[in-house]
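INPUT
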Amino acid sequence: MLRIAIDKIDSLFDAIAEKQTLYIPVDREDGAAEYKKYESGMKMSNSLNTLRSAKDFFFPQTENLVEFKMEGKQIEVKDIREESEDFVIFGVRACDARSFSILDKVYLVDPVDSFYKNRRDHGVVVSMACTRPAETCFCSAFGIDPTAPEGDVSCWNDGSYIYFEANTEKGKAFVDSISSLLEDGDASSLENVKAETKRILSLLPLSNLSTDSFGGDKLNEYFNSEKWAELSESCIGCGTCTFVCPTCQCYDIKDFNTGNGIKRFRCWDSCMYSDFTKMAHGNPRISQLERFRQRFMHKLVYFPANNNGEFGCVGCGRCLSKCPISMNIVKVMKALEVK
Amino acid sequence: MNANDTLIPHIGVVTDIRIDTPDVKTFRVNAINADGTVGGKVFEHMPGQCAMLSIPGVGEAMFSITSSPTNKEFMEFSIKKCGCLTNWLHAMDVGQQITIRGPYGNAFPVETELKGKDLLFIAGGIGLAPLRSVINYVRDNRANYGDVQIVYGSRSMDDLVDYKEIIDEWMTDDGIEVNLTIDREQEGWDGHVGFVPNYVKELNPSLNKTVLICGPPIMIKFTLNGLKELGFTETQVYTTMELRMKCGVGKCGRCNIGNKYVCKDGPVFRFDELGELPDEY
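OUTPUT
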């Protein structure tokens, strides 16, 4: 298998960054990891995962959709779309790598979202297998193997080398472009690494979480559950769970008057907010109970109903560690599941 | 990147504004052609479909297209004044350009399930707007449909939308029965007085009719109950829904009822389909 010694990874990053924009996870001063545009000398983070998910690369928090010039009664529409530059995201974990295929099922189905597709077409996802899954991890419950991450290229780290395997045409082209820096080497050590990761996984507190009770056919059964009242009682509607979530895909569209025209923006929105569904004649989700229920019904029931049973969660655990009232999808699943 | 994106709107020109009621105006919208002339439609649609209209900097919202697709000259939107954007639209003059994108959503099944049927339209207030598209489509394809009955009610005589068209055109058509009602007695009105759901029960329409309802949620609810008491089944009653929308194509995530997006899977639903979804609308 093609590999590179870990102490030579900087030279690999330098070589990639010479040709295209490269993003790698780096540690911030407060210890949290985040993706940064690579500049020579930057060190890749050893953290399990980044604070924010990798969805930003394809579905940024805000973006400019279109601009207008207003003059008297006339309006001019300015299509400001530009072809994205090629870029590489290095070190994406298996959960986030799967989230892209979930976002694809929203944004690449007809009518295709050209803004999303443009970035998707130009981005190479290089994933990195996990070796130290954490207590908040539950990707396995959603059928994700953290020792075999998806992406255009999958990578493994055995402590001495990083190994590369291309999964797509785009991935092959990328590996070819860096092949002069890689060597062909024995990858048998990875079996032990993967076995050890799986052993840790089996010992984690959420290793027994089951999705068996959920799916698209449970629509009214779960919607009408009496448990939502208690589960949602403490929710303060801050929306943090939706913002750190790699699969939350809802957006708002708003106009901004620059003084020299109007910019129309798209930005992340949250079903946890009261004005998300508020209309002139009222709001169908009048309390936090309805908003809270919407988020979990979407991930566990509505999304699978529309996507051949696939769930809208990848078990990354970000909402577990970030919710200020310690409520999360795992607690919801355990409360609702039929034993 | 050459492909059009539905989020990037077209420009339309408002070429006529009709005052229907104290808070409803009907706006005629034409396209700007390649040679700069104004005329024709920005896009084609089917009865029941909607469009996103916007004044950049003010807002963008979904409106049902009230004109029939058989009208080849222009599109029309009957809009009630009830928010930032609609206030702005009500204040504008003829010649104003707006942005328009669509058409969005499904349509009433005028070419399939409704074909050959006796039709009963029931509307309340501005709820006539989406049904007018179907009514005029049926009038222009008269041979394809059976008898037509229209029950329409509003708060007062002055709140009846499309009043002139109803009197001058619908009421004079053969095979169309129009029953108007207003909520309270009013000087100059010698027609029926009373709420729509009760009026429908009084009229006791024949059970072979296929029903299309639109109006305030409370009116829809009581009318449906009344129809069921008369013996109608949910499979013969259609309605059109309205929830907050941003994208129009099932991606922005806010207009869902259960796993269905009103913008994409609706806005037209048959009541038996709606009955299978969670009660959250």
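end of record. The mean pLDDT of chain B is 96.
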